[in-house]
Amino acid sequence: MSYIPNVLRKQVVERAENCCEYCKLSQTGQEATFHIDHVQPVKHLGKTAFDNLALACVSCSLHKAAKTTATDHETGEETPLFNPRKSTWQQHFRWNGVELQAKDTCGRATIATMRINRPLALAVRLEERLLGRHPEQ
Ligand SMILES: [Zn+2]
User: Fold this and answer.
1) Quick check: is 137 in a domain?
2) Are 47 and 92 in contact (CB under 8 A)?
3) Mean of the pLDDT values across residues 73-95?
4) Which residues of 21-47 are buried (b: 16+ CB within 10 A; e: fewer)?
5) Intra-chain end-to-end CA distance of the chain, in Å
6) Is residue 1 part of a domain?
7) 108, CA 20 to 30 Å: which among 95, 116, 118, 126?
8) How far away, in angstroms, is 27 Cα from ligand 1 center?
């Protein structure tokens, strides 16, 4: 992981309204500090700059790792993962209760790659909903 200056981290957190930019989990109440994700990974010469960073929960960050594409299981095609700096979340995703649904291949590949609907994530979202922090509300 590369060093992110505190000022830059604060700007990224504010832009993201303190939520994971992929699964929308709120950082409030989570024990682990969220990661600053390089949307274009450092490995692929992505810069540590405001326009290439996104706030990501630990799970999304670790599952995404240095990927920018993934195989869409329905079409078998290599598909770009959701890029929060190039398109809006609403273009690719919608909530069905606490389950995240894809609107397109990009959304589908992102949900699968980051395991956004794994059982533990659904359980956390149910709790977040009780606390009034789930974004579907
Ligand atoms: Zn997440």
Assistant:
1) no
2) no
3) 96
4) bbbbbbbeeeeeebbbbbbbeeeeebe
5) 34
6) no
7) 126
8) 9
Which residue segment(s) compose the domain that 81 sits in?
Answer: 6-130
Expressed in angstroms and rounded, the spacing between residue 137 Cα and the centre of ligand 1 is 17
Whole-model pTM: value is 0.94
Stretch 66-73: mean pLDDT, rounded?
Answer: 94
Token duo for residue 71: 């195989």
Q: Does the residue 43 lie in any domain?
A: yes
Q: Distance, CA 77 to ligand 1 centroid (Å)?
A: 24
Q: Give me ligand 1 centre to Cα 108, in Å.
A: 15
Q: How many domains does the chain have?
A: 1
3-state helix, strand, coil in the chain (%, to 5): 35, 20, 45
Query: Residue 20 in contact with residue 57, Cβ under 8 Å?
Result: yes
Domain assignment present for residue 49? The answer is yes
